[in-house]
Write a structure and sequence with these properties.
By secondary structure, this protein is mainly alpha-helical. It has helices spanning 5-14, 21-42, 73-77; strands at 83-84, 87-88. The relative contact order is 0.08.
Length: 95
């Protein structure tokens, strides 16, 4: 896939970015380099390669999922400017 200047201008317009001619030429070159690299990667034969979760066979150190602190509702609600029945009251944003 190759991008031309009109493609770059269209992308800039969609992103609401103002771009000069020099910037468009530079961006087109960089984007085309990226697409070329992606095409090279896509050509690699991965048949028979087993997917792995970590490239170095690393293991995630996990801790036990245990409650370590009980929430204190009164302390938490102490900063609420408005509350009702233990819940924060907020201004209505949708009519």
């Amino acid at each position: 896939m190759s991008l031309n200047l009109s493609d770059v201008y269209r992308i800039a317009h969609l992103a609401r970015i103002e771009i000069t001619d020099a910037q468009a030429r530079e961006a087109a070159g960089q984007l085309n380099d990226i697409f070329a690299m992606i095409e090279r990667i896509a050509r690699v034969d991965t048949a028979g390669v087993v997917p792995m979760s970590h490239p170095l066979d690393g293991v995630q150190r996990l801790r036990a999922d245990a409650v370590t602190e009980v929430p204190d509702r009164e302390r938490t609600m102490g900063n609420a400017p408005a509350r009702q029945d233990g819940l924060f009251l907020v201004p209505r944003v949708i009519e």
